[in-house]
Write a structure and sequence with these properties.
Largest sheet: 8 strands, mixed
CATH superfamily of the largest domain: START domain
InterPro entries: CO_DH_gsu, START-like_dom_sf
Number of domains: 2
CATH class of the largest domain: Alpha Beta
Order of helices and strands: EHHEEEEEEHEHH
Number of strands: 8
Pfam families: COXG
Radius of gyration: 24 Å
Helix content: 25-40%
CATH architecture of the largest domain: 2-Layer Sandwich
Structural class: alpha+beta
Keywords: Membrane, Transmembrane, Transmembrane helix
Strand content: 25-35%
Protein name: Carbon monoxide dehydrogenase
Amino acid sequence: MRLDHEFTVPAPPDQVWREVTDPESVAPCMPGATLTKVEGDSFTGNVKVKLGPISLLYKGSGEFLEKDESARKIVIKASGKDSRGAGTAAATVTVTLSAEGTGTKGKVETDLNVTGRPAQFGRGMISEVGGKILDQFAQNLAEKLTASEEPAATAATEEKSADATEPKPKLESVKPAPKEAEAIDLFDYAGSSVAKRLAPVIAGVAGLLVIVTIIRLIRRKK
């Protein structure tokens, strides 16, 4: 299936380009994703997904097929498989960045093939959920870019005032180990769409509870 989405980030295109072409930098911004290995333009990782009470872990790999800096266009091919054999996912993703005011607009074209449990939700719901996940990604990316600018500004201020003070020894910074990402709960992202689809089931359960309650009341009267 073909999916089209857009996102915006309040940062210049050159800065966003550097982030999205670096797997180690961009992976923590994607909900549920944890990067495990990077070799050149290839990478491996996993994505945790929840379908309500059902937990799925997709282990997969990907590679950059194209990096056109002049056009700010990248093409990524990725595939993954549920660790329990409940389904597979394969996608070719094309991301094109362009300036929009003082920020960046990203256009994402995805050719997606999904099998197993996630496929039961259909194209419309997968597109809706994918759009919301991409919005969360853009928000995380914007927060990351903003956070990286603050230390740089602080360092510049400290350098200006360094002439009037004695130099102090710098402490070595230890890079923390990457944190395991929390699972994406697709029911949370789908919202009303899933609720509508589950409405008949919820109604059936409610009806069953009513019947059970009536039977209990009759038994008590006897």
